[in-house]
Amino acid sequence: MELLKRLCDAPGVCGHEEAVREILINAAGSYADSVHVDSLGNLFMTKGEKKSGPRVMFAAHTDEVGLMVERIDDDGFIRFMVLGGIDPRVLPAKRVRIGKECIPGVIGIKPIHLLDKEERKEVTSLSDLRVDTGASSRSEAERFVDVGDPIWFDTSFEQWGDVLKAKAFDDRAGCYMMAELIKHEFGFPVTFVWTVQEEVGLRGARAAAARVRPDIILALEGTGAGDVPTDKDVARRPFLGKGPVVTILDRTMVADKRLVELLCQTADHEGIPWQFKRPLIGGTDAGAAIRVKPLHAAVLAIPCRYIHSPVALADVKDIINTIELVKAACGRFGEVKL
Amino acid sequence: MKNKILQELCAAFGPTGRESRVAGIVKTHLEGTNLEVTTDALSNVIARGGDGPYRVFCTHLDQPGWVVEHRDKKGFLHLRPLPSDAELGAGWAVDEEAELYRVFREPEDKSWRAGSLIEGKGEMDTFLVPKGEFEESRNAFFATALADRAGAALLIDMAQNMGVDQSAALIFYTGRHLGFAGLPAALETFDIERFYLVEALPCDKGNEGYSSGDGPVVLLRTQRSVAPEYWIEEVFHLAEESQLKLQKGVLADTSSAADSLSRRGIPSLVLGVPLHYHSSRIERMAIADYEAAARLLESLLRGT
To answer: DSSP 3-state assignment of B289?
Structure first.
């Protein structure tokens, strides 16, 4: 999991995915027939260009949810905006890093002693939060920080048995799985695309699909696990450690029924545990791709608990099982009448 | 005589994402016409005759429904509506195999629930739609999914009356209730001269500027698009020549495929048929409006 550790620890807020891309080029580039980076920053690696059969595009996004410096107050505190879907409740009192020089900071919050009764009941709004770098004036802060600099959560990867703890499993887990899958030989032409700016509207995937023009897209993702504690008898899936997550439909697309059946049947055949994702939640690069050309789309993900927050949990077994499921399913593409 | 095609389409199972049965019916009815018919990876049905650039007539195939998200310990199914604001009401529903379910709303939080008549039926990948009904009185259709299938029936009718020398393209797209998911990809091979969206339009609020029984409607604007004035005049001129009643309308608070198209730089004109009780279990459409819309489409096909 050394590569996954490096990927998760690397900064990659939307629009600033360079560090992740460099890691991937170094780790996977030698297995590809060709490597290309487009003007948006999408990374393409192609294999088996001359093979016959459907053109398959694997997609995983390199960006993570994060923040961006909006302006610096006179007293040196940094105002920020959110890039991607972040619940403001998870931000206060979190450690962050800023910009090219990885300046440390903390998202400050008033201590409990200074809160009145009403304030204790409220969530501090985004507009009231600031990053504190220790600078005491704007000019001091500007020596290290500039407007537009990315801000990311300062979280280090850890492994506790099968359970992994890190930021950005969404979608460094997908990036990692693709870097492993590119070592595999496929019976058809494949393009691996590590996309950019997924978290701010699936932007990179649109351009990527227009370039690759695949017949099939399989997006590899980190998806929100629903197995948080509750006493209610409500939907809680997907569960951490219970296998790859298959999408039926999300907010951007309906997965191809035949591909969904292929994934489920292959998993059963191979003895790989799997689970369905709750319907109509989230969206992925596959949803952007189907708006570019008619193609068969599917999404396979690993469950991540506490997704889109400074720290999430994932399970090694889910990652390994997802890689194995993709390999096995790709071996059976010929059985599917698309 | 009953409108058999409309009846067949309204009865067909076809929630968003599971439109293949409706697509199959459309394809069957287009066989034997002068059009070349294809289906793409998203189950869009595309038919074209003659050479481009085409006058494109477009409608959708999918209907609102529910997807199962959980089975609770009592055996009840927890449902998610699609689209999320669908108000289909409690009552009977069916799955793809026509098995019956009773759909109701949880009294406490108003979320959707269903009970299957067969114990254990209904998995995570089960889609449900309201059980289809169709009635035709002397002057109106009363049906389930009329809003979603009247457009398809009109286009099939148009295709069946198309001459060999006429040039046009028809698009029956999927995923209307999921951000018009199927539409953008369906457009990719077309050289477009005019783009008409054929839809049923709600007329329950009373402030739309049009009413049921007064003929088909041309929308002046939708949420994010405005119809070009010359084009509206052109259609009204054609309607006048054909002695057809035609109304103008505005639908600024409902998303339309026209909005999605305008973002891609494709101007379109929405031609609608007024519909009462839109997106409910039983919708109502005046037969006179439907027939006038069919004649208007015929005129548009003949062209100016």
So the answer is: helix
The Cα of B255 is separated from the nearest Cα of chain A by a number of Å equal to: 16
- Please state the pTM of the whole predicted model: 0.93
Q: What is the ipTM of this complex?
A: 0.90
Which chain A positions have a beta carbon within 8 Å of B188's beta carbon? Answer: 292-294
Number of separate helices (H) and strands (E) present in chain A? 9, 17
- For residue B217, the distance in angstroms to the closest alpha carbon of chain A comes to 29
Listing DSSP states for A310-333 in one string gives S-EEEEHHHHHHHHHHHHHHHTTG
Amino acid at position B199, single letter = E
Q: Is the peptide bond before A171 cis (omega within 30 degrees of 0)?
A: yes
Distance CA A9, CA A7 (A): 6
- Helix boundaries (H) for chain B: 4-11, 20-30, 146-160, 183-186, 229-241, 257-263, 287-302
pLDDT in tens, B190-242: 889 899 999 999 998 877 889 999 999 999 999 888 999 999 999 999 999 99
Interface residue B259 vs chain A (CB under 8 A): no
- Each residue's pLDDT tens digit, B125-163: 899 999 989 999 999 999 999 999 999 999 999 999 988
- Who among A233, A256, A294 is closest to B72 (CB)? A233
